[in-house]
Amino acid sequence: MAGRSGPFDEIGELFDRLARQLETAARSWETAVDDRSRLDLSMRGSATSLDVAEEGEEFVVTVDVPGYETDDLEINLTGETLKIRGERARETDQVDEETYIRRERELRSFSRQVRLPAVVDADGVDATLNNGVLTIRLPTLESDDNAQTIDIE
């Protein structure tokens, strides 16, 4: 009776085939996530959207920051990493809390980090805020095409 299959043999084969398909799918998902996360270094998802574009000899980062003023935003460039932070506090005018029927506008903050594809000229960076859209222009540094040969001793 060794040649006779059990009632659960086909189910076991089905689970093995399903596990192999899930492994293949997971590998392709990891590749897609790796390609996206190579540039985005933010620790968690953010409600603040941004775009990074290459326009000629500069990168242009555009960030949606509705309701933020210039003083609410902080931009830092360290090497090839651009960090953008914003914090907006609730208006603290002398308002009677009991007059509100619904109050959702509170302290808001965000933090985004983006690794730029190339080194930029930190002295030439320009940032503007217009109608809730932050635009940061980062000129790229000219690449050094003068390769140097190194002799091996």
UniProtKB/TrEMBL annotation:
Gene3D superfamilies hit by this protein: 2.60.40.790
Record Pfam families: HSP20
PROSITE patterns noted in UniProt: SHSP (PS01031)
CDD domains: ACD_sHsps-like
Transmembrane regions listed in the UniProt entry: none
Domain SHSP: 41-153
Domain of life: Archaea
InterPro entries, per the entry: A-crystallin/Hsp20_dom, HSP20-like_chaperone, Small_HSP
Family, similarity comment: Belongs to the small heat shock protein (HSP20) family.
Name the UniProt record assigns to this protein: Hsp20/alpha crystallin family protein
Species in which this protein is naturally found: Natrialba swarupiae
Source species taxonomy: Archaea, Methanobacteriati, Methanobacteriota, Stenosarchaea group, Halobacteria
